[in-house]
User: Fold this.
Amino acid sequence: MIQIDDAGSGSLVGGTIIGIIRTETLDYFYDIIPIELFKTPYFEEKKYKDYCINIIKEGFENLKVSKDENVQICQGYIFDKARDYLKEKGYNFLSVKISEPLQSIIEETFMDYAIGLGIPLDYLQYTKYPFHFHRLLKWVLADYKERQKLCKTGWNSYKKYSSVKTEHYTDYLFSPNFRCLKCGNIIKVPSKVSVIRFITNKEYFIYLHEGCYSSQ
Assistant:
């Protein structure tokens, strides 16, 4: 059995992982749809769906997938063109909700990828999978000039909230376990901190070391 799934298509930050596994042997192949394809004009042109087909082609070659094997492919929109491709090429496939073993493996792959982009592991765990849009927006706004490059800027939600009005001020932090969302290090308490406040679906606060704040 071959399973095909994606991870990260719902994450504001980063591209999207496409993973393929042979369930009997756990032979695994993955690649990343680059973040550039989720930006204007490529996002509106749905170029990410074409790239998805390219990854599946390469993955099938790598895993030596035959047309006699059963293939399960995720029902998600990102695979719209891929399903047409599989049908055209005569593969025996079903569109289903993908479960184990691929689900956990591909989610871990995306987690590692997101950490590589600079998001701290404990913050990723705090956002809860799939990564919470507004909490990831906090991480982006902590260093907007650099991190907006990592965002799916073609999204309507990004266009709506990325220019949200922010307020900056200094305060004292006494509660432990807060991490500076600019440098990624724990903020020792008690400590004077820089705070960025903004409101989207609710009020959010970004805490930074006082020396880590810079105007965007």
